[in-house]
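Section 3.1: Structural characterization of target chains.
Under the original work plan, the team committed to producing a structural model for every single-chain target entering the pipeline before any wet-lab resources were allocated. The record below documents one such target. The sequence was received from the expression subgroup and is listed exactly as submitted; it comprises 382 residues.
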Amino acid sequence: MKKILICAVPFSDNLGDGVIAASLAHIAGLKYPDAKVEFLDIAGRHGFDEQNLRGGGAFGVFQKLPALVRSAIVFAYCLKNYVLSWRKHWRAAISDADLVIIGGGQLFCDVALNFPSKLFLLSRLLRGKRVAVVSVGVTAKWSFWGKVLVGKFLKNAAPVFFATRDAESAKNLHDFFKVPRPSIEVVPDPALVCASAFSKELSPDKKWDVGICVSSLDALVMNSEYGSTNASGSAEFFSKLAHALRTEGARVLYFTNGAAEDNRVLAEISSQASDSDASFLVPKRPDDLVALISACSCIAAHRLHANIVAYSLNIPSVGMNWDKKVESFFRLTGRTQYLFDLSPRPDDLKASVLNLLNEKSADRRRLDELRGEVIAGTHALI
């Protein structure tokens, strides 16, 4: 095999997607060390510093529009970019690929037709190519047009293999898109091997006791499969948690996964900070995210891939549940006792974090099992 093309969102400002892509490339390289592994970002990005629709002030207005209007805007935006620029670049990237991997992350989801539109447009160029769907998340929340577009993607691309990252996603792929259940493998998230993929970036020292991954709770709720949920003020919630931990003497780091909406919340917290007891960091690349998490003794996070990266690095984490994919990961790893609601009481979180910090003997057996499943399962598919 000479060239493997990974189609996902590797240059997303949500750097967890970049961690997935790099981990998947690492796994592919273990099987085919002489193959060239390239990325194609289906959002049309070519690097990590490009703007996105969520980055500006118009995003707040966009959130308030009716769902049908939002979907029409997103589809028109994708179609325009496909005709003007994406198609030419994508065709060139796909032309000499021996294998096209649609892989990693919650790619089969329907938030205002975002991924359905991109997958459909991509599939128009995949006819006749060998395509494998690897370790994708599949939501159970679909609009009529979202199902139509993903259905057309599956027809055009005609994947030869299917793997989802959990059993619930496999069920959703079967229930909504009629892919035969026996044809769907379950291969856990590629980012579970990020400790190997990013081994050179890991910090040898624990600079912080607790890393708090700051998120925009409003943005999470908008993307949640659970539907509408009451979210408290984001900045206030994370500030109270940090204060509760600092009163116990913990060294606290505020960080984000890099998403623009999360960075705005972090900037708000930083501007209101009355002391210098906490640190603030915004990663710019996936390796930055892995490095800063590796420098923490424990983390607290809503974002799925902050929790997955920490788990891969054998760093304990407390999660806050805003979507089924987060719940699914904590079930997979047997750690549901460390999963809280969207915005729990800071004192409850503090107690759980302090308990984790006092743990002296982490059980690596489940982590090693999952790493083995990821590598063996991905190799079998490719």
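The domain at 3-187 is CATH 3.40.50 (Rossmann fold).
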